[in-house]
Hints:
The chain is α/β, with parallel strands linked by helices.
Amino acid sequence: MNKDFFKSSNPSRFHSLRDTRPEPTTWQVLFKEITNSTHTAATRHYRAHLATLSDIEATGDAQQLEQWKLTKSNMKNAQPAFIPSVLLEGGRTYAHVKGFTGFIMVDIDGIPPERFAAILTLVKEDIHSFLVYITISGCGIRVISHVEGGVTKANYRMVWEWVNDHYARLCGVEIDGQCKNATRMSVLCHDPEALLRPEASSFHTSGMKPREKPKRGTAVTVTAERAYKIIRAQLEEEGIAYAPSSYNDYVSRCFYHTNRYGVPQADAEAWALRTFPDYPREQLLPIIKSCYSLTMEFNTVPLPRSVRKKEKENDSSHKKATVEEMEEFINGYMKFRMNMLTHQIETQLIADAYTDRPEASACHWQRLTDHIENSLWCAMQHHGMAVNLNELHTLLGSDFVKEYHPLKEYLDGLPPWDGETDYIGRLAAMVHVKESPHSPLQQDKSRERNDLSETPVRFADILKRWMVSMIAAALDETVVNQVILTLIGRQGSYKTSFMQHILPPVLSEYYTTKSNSSRMTKDDLFTMTENLVINLEEIDTMPPSELNQLKAMVTQRYVDERRAYGRNKVHLPHVASFVATGNNLQFLTDDTGNRRWLPFEVEDIDSPWEADIPYEGIYSQTYALYQDVNFRYWFTDKEIQQLRGHVQQFEVPRPEYELILTYYRKPVGLERGVYTTSSQIIGRFGNTSLRLSLQKVGRAMRELGFRQVKASNANYWVVVERTTEEVQHLLPAEAEQANPPGEKPSEENTELPF
């Protein structure tokens, strides 16, 4: 071996099997760590644990066995390790590989105890053995050899197979096929008799050839029916049944075997549709296509006459993969994360990981689907890993997949707000709203306005509080944004476009729309659990029944429903905030109150498509206000009452209001007035086509501020009936001024003067 190359191809060391930060080291340092007392106690403890584990297996205590297996896994994961085959920078996945060292790892496992010493001697005496030591279990031998001539991604598998075949022939035992992963780690442990041979001879790529592919049998075409008789027995022995809890696993394994047994894909698809009529066609066919995409596996296994379990167990290609091996393969193939906003697992294919596929270079995150999970399982099978699909699904549902909140990650990555610049005000300045005679909130009139905000302060203030509420609702599941920011105006005024641009581009996928569908569905409920902003388009065409459902949705804290095709109900927090757009000014039809709405009439909006919206500033300001304990982003009852007059201009005219304002007024000063009941008021207008009710009239009288008097026999309102001349000459504005809304009426218990 070239000594200069030996020095320049040092391995990467990791503090544990779960560590992802490589540290440079040297072969001499690793050898010293193996042979000195650094890992003596940990190695002895681990081997003693294995001995106890064997005793527990003999007792059949499943619960205790699982606990000890978990402890075993944790002990091994805590040990330091190294990667010999690749040069790494910044991580340990294929995305971090900067080159190949030329060193190949061989794992000789499953050695009969009576042959262990002899095989260890053979390996140490072989001139190609560079590093040899006994593994942490005490039952295996780890070998590192070197290859000259250039090891690359393209030829790595061929080189690995060539070196491993050499040691398989030398030792007369099967070699563990899991080591073919170039980023596979080797656990450091104690072996005082380990061997380091710097002068070891190198293999050379010039004499290497790929393994011959198994010849495909052509004598008899295997039918799906014939193959299934064998496959069904195999799956039964593996404990896999065609049951609701394992449909996906059963079907995937079934067609993985039909591909290997040489059943034509068309025959397999036709047979599957006949055999599994309860399995959705749109899910079944993609699974078959995914399994048959492994063209190199097609017709590579002869159809056996029977299932020979013993032979299968002795076949190293079917050796069951451990959790550690599954994690290591996945870490080099795909990235996974649990999106805490959508409650879905997302995956990203690592570029150049085991594949030359062009889509691997895109490296975009996407939701985990059955197709992706099945493809991952097939890739693991293709690389010699015997993995049960249920076990893979369990692993992906564990803490192996780290949690990720897209909004939280975006906010934490922003520069801090300077505490002065009003970026939200700049966003509000894009919206030019019509002045309202009712100010929703009292503002400090002495405060100067800069040239960026010609928009009334009330819209900027409400937009600011709504946006902070949006952040709070998404980050804290105890908070629900219960108000709907609404823009009403002519078509083509960029109302919907503005709503689309509230979220920054990186979070735009969490914006969705709901158009008028005349009903609220279960899907609408689930959109509240996985989106940040929901835009209710054409709100003015939404029927009253749907508006009433919407009021309940806006205040709902959790969604407890069963998803489509799901088995159990889920309990998910409401994280979305609502906005709405429409064309007609008067769209609110609920006569019981409209406190959930924050509507504004739009004159014009600056085009969001052309504007340079300062998203970083907007959201750093919003996040800072959310964290400021002195900033209140919710509305008090007093403020809601102040908003009442502003919201009234968007309410559909109410006949009972108009009639009462036209024909009655409140007494002024010492004026006595008369006593009348709600029934008498309805009777006065009984000849009209309007549908009046005691509830509507009573609510209108109360909201208009008329005084109510309770007597033993009825409730009366104190009113002054307008004269005919007053009715004919009274303007609506004068009527409202005479009866200002919002004033709480007084109630008296008294005897009436009749």
